[in-house]
């Protein structure tokens, strides 16, 4: 699932986990990218997504694939299956504005 904040400063890419939680990647227009886990199912998410845990240090695109933060790395596989554009956004192939419109 893709969720865009009303002010268009954040894009969330999320998917449900088998344990009922949701995991995902939040991309901020100016704050960078971080992985997160929430105890609210994907279908009920609203901005701001309540994080149960998240990566401490956001990264800026283009990301270093070898140095991805742990939570983001764990969420990337399931998120990328549903929304392949996340890969292009993380590599810098598309920009934030392009991701808002796709």
The low-pLDDT segments are: none
Helices, by number, come to 3
| Percent helix range | 25-40%
Summarize the biggest pleated sheet.
5 strands, antiparallel
> Gyration radius, to the nearest Å?
12 Å
Overall body shape: globular
The average pLDDT score comes to: 96
Strand order of the largest sheet: 1-2-3-4-5
Structural class category: alpha+beta
How many structurally independent domains? 1
What's the end-to-end separation, in Å?
Answer: 13 Å
The portion of residues forming beta strands comes to: 25-35%
**Topology as a string of helices (H) and strands (E):** EEEEEHHH
DSSP summary, beta strand count: 5
Describe, in plain words, how this protein is organized in 3D.
- By secondary structure, the chain is of the alpha+beta class.
- The protein has one domain.
- Helices cover 25% and strands 25% of the residues.
- The chain has 3 helices and 5 strands, in the order βββββααα.
- The chain has helices spanning 70-82, 85-91, 96-101; strands at 2-4, 10-16, 22-28, 32-38, 53-54.
- The chain has a 5-stranded antiparallel beta sheet.
- β3 (22-28) and β4 (32-38) form a beta hairpin.
- The longest helix has 13 residues, at 70-82.
- The radius of gyration is 12 Å and the shape is globular.
- The two termini are 13 Å apart.
- The mean pLDDT is 96.
């Amino acid at each position: 699932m893709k969720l865009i904040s009303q002010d268009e400063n954040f894009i969330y890419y999320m998917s449900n986990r088998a344990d009922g939680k949701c995991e995902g990647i939040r991309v901020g227009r100016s704050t960078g990218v971080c992985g997160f886990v929430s105890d609210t199912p994907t279908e009920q998410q609203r901005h701001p997504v309540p994080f149960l845990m998240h990566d401490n240090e956001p990264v800026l695109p283009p990301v270093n694939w070898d140095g991805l933060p742990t939570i983001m790395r764990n969420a990337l596989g399931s998120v990328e299956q549903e929304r392949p554009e996340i890969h292009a956004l993380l590599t810098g192939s598309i920009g934030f504005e392009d991701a808002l419109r796709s």
